[in-house]
Amino acid sequence: MENAVIKNRLVQIREEMKRVGVDYYLLPTADFHNSEYVHAFFKAREYFSGFSGSNGTLVVWQEGAGLWTDGRYFTQAERELEGTGIELFRMLQEGVPTIKEFLEREMKEGQKLGFDGRVMPTETGLQLEKTLNSKGIMIDYTYDFAGKIWKDRPALPAGEIWVVPQTVAGESVESKLSKVKATMEKNGADSFFLSKLDDIMWLLNIRGCDVECNPVALSYLLVSEERTVLFVQSKALSEVVKKHLEANLIYVEEYSEVLAYLKKMPQTRAVVLDKRYCSYAFYKVLQKACKIVEAKNPTELLKAVKNPVELSNMKDIYLKDSLAVTKFIYWLKSNIGKQEITEITAADYLEKLRREIPEFLDLSFPTISAYNENAAMMHYEATTESYAVLKPEGILLVDSGGQYMGGTTDVTRTIVLGPVSEEIKKHYTLTAAGMLQMTHAKWLYGCTGRNLDILARQPLWEIGMDYQCGTGHGVGYILNVHEGPQNLRWRFTEGMAEAVLEEGMDVTNEPGVYIPGSYGIRIENVLVVKKAEKNEYGQFLCFDTLTYVPLDPEAVQVSLLTEVQRKYYNAYQKKVYETLSPYLSKEELEWLEEQTREL
Fold it and tell me: Residue 69 sits in a domain of what CATH number?
């Protein structure tokens, strides 16, 4: 985007700020539900900054502007912010203040901070309130400058909602609601206000299409002992969905009426509310209307632990998805240098293979197809205006996934297209070693991802290297590709919670190496937590692997692997061959045999 366009938009924001007496204005990356990925209607931060990453917050003041984002996006943000006058604040880097610290330092007594409280998490709003009010700084959360300035803003989405059959969901709505109500009771509450979209979809066994790649519908849910009310755009409901909701005693109200409804709640109500996801504006309304019981959404943990039907379907879907990715790698290696292949046409071919799977619904996120230096940007996305043509040299990183009736997939492979440097081989080998060490983790019940993260990083830490992100995240079931509360990471920033790894939770395993301006390497499988032995020391747990896509022997330096790591590598490659071989053509089978040969 032209820098002049962004500068002009910032001028318009500053004019609005001056008009209403706002000194600093915050624009986070969020919708009214604090979702990670949002519909185009909510991309106000991108509209005003030009930065298109999925995580970032823009702060505007009269003399300047700053954008805060995490390590996944440093390279991308540098490029997209160039010439806009917006300063990049690299989160978690030494000497870089947090937004709260920055505002505390820069704002003066009597000044006013403004934001749209509907897109601000309660947790963040309350932290700002506590920090700034003590300095005599006012907060006003009623300003939606995007609504005034953004003239060609896309319409609020209202895609059709559909029902997930119980045979696919594995548990009834009634059963799920009874578990939620039991948790409410335990917390001394008689109601539960839920605004997290994927949790609502899971709880009611429905799905939508209001966010690209995430099968969710804009909605709120209020659960009480007497009734459960779904606030949704009625035009998104078919007769089938209406009957499904009626059968489960779910009352329907218009999406736009939720605030008015909450204002009328009896003061005797005690409502469970999760500050991480509920918007600050809603918190303020409920704070006046009734008693708030602060607790984590009970749905989050219930959803994260996959039931036997979900796990069985996921195993089947991951086999089909792994097969598609493996066929893609074979096609790519067979055709590179013989026909023109770009980052975009490579991604299109992989999508074509996925679409041939009968259960396919959509991609689970836009495919990252990144050649050589582009792969150093963790969340790079090629566009028709900017893409690389692949050559029979170097490496291609492909991070992709699908939404299926029976699971959500996420897999990354770094593929050798021709001659590569010894440095690339070294970094690929150590990344693979870390991924395989995590695969073979064994631990006592009670551990979180913080306890395990070192297994994936250790080979890289030994040579003084690291990657600026977590090692793994939970994955939804026909839902968001990023799901909590489980994860694999060593660093937890303020407000981030650790979760005990439970049997039935799934998690990605994706260490990597990113050298700005040169190349990026990532290898990602999805694992499921399962029980190992139980003895006098307690219950041991380990991982089951869902992803079976070959590693690339052309990038492996055997001398860098320990004896144990080499054993892990050979065992994984052998399992890939055994799992996929019944479904491949003669030529593909010959190639896979060579690809998975023992080291």
Answer: 3.40.350.10
Of how many residues is the chain composed? Answer: 599
Cis peptide before 366 (omega within 30 of 0): no
Same domain, 354 and 494: yes
Do 263 and 208 belong together in one domain? yes
pLDDT band at residue 452, thresholds of 50, 70 and 90? very high
Both 327 and 272 in one domain: the answer is no
Find, among 409, 244, 400, the residue nearest to 313 by Cα.
409
Contacts of residue 145, Cβ cutoff 8 Å, sequence gap at least 6: 13, 16, 17, 25, 116
Q: In which residue are the tokens 């009611």 written?
A: 204
The whole-angstrom separation of Cα 434 and Cα 223 is: 44
| Closest CA relative to residue 401, chosen from 351, 363, 347, 350 | 363
pLDDT category of residue 494 using cuts at 50, 70 and 90: low
Residues 173 and 216 in one domain: yes
Which residue(s) pair with 487 in the sheet?
A: 473
3-class state of residue 420 by DSSP: coil
Which among 460, 434, 369, 420 is positioned nearest to 555, based on CA atoms? 420
Q: How far is residue 45 CA from its own chain's centroid?
A: 18
- Are 277 and 323 found together in one domain? no
Residues 541 and 414 grouped into a single domain: yes
154 belongs to a structural domain:
no
Strand partners, 312: none
Q: By residue range, what is the domain housing residue 471?
A: 305-595
Q: Where do the H-state alpha helices sit in 154-215?
A: 166-169, 173-186, 197-204
Query: Residue with structure tokens 């000497």?
Result: 95
Residue 408 near residue 476 (C-beta atoms within 8 A): yes
The whole-angstrom separation of Cα 70 and Cα 77 is: 10
Q: Taking Cα atoms as reference points, which of 447, 349, 367, 441 lies closest to residue 403? A: 367
Question: Where does the pLDDT of residue 495 fall: very low under 50, low under 70, confident under 90, or very high at 90 and above?
Answer: low
What is the value of pTM for the model shown?
0.91
Answer whether residue 157 is part of any domain: no
Q: Which two tokens stand for residue 293?
A: 């019981």
In this structure, are 530 and 471 located in the same domain?
Answer: yes
What pairs with residue 24 in β-bridges? 61, 113
Tell me how far apart the alpha carbons of residues 65 and 59 are, in angstroms, rounded to a whole number.
Answer: 6
Do 559 and 416 belong to one domain? Answer: yes
pLDDT digits (tens, 9 = 90+) for 534-551: 999 999 999 999 999 999
Domain boundary among 253, 273, 303: 303
Helix/strand/coil for 269: coil
Q: How would you label 537-576 residue by residue, b for 16+ Cβ within 10 Å and e otherwise?
A: eeeebbbebbbbbbbbbbbbeeebbeeebbebbeebbeeb
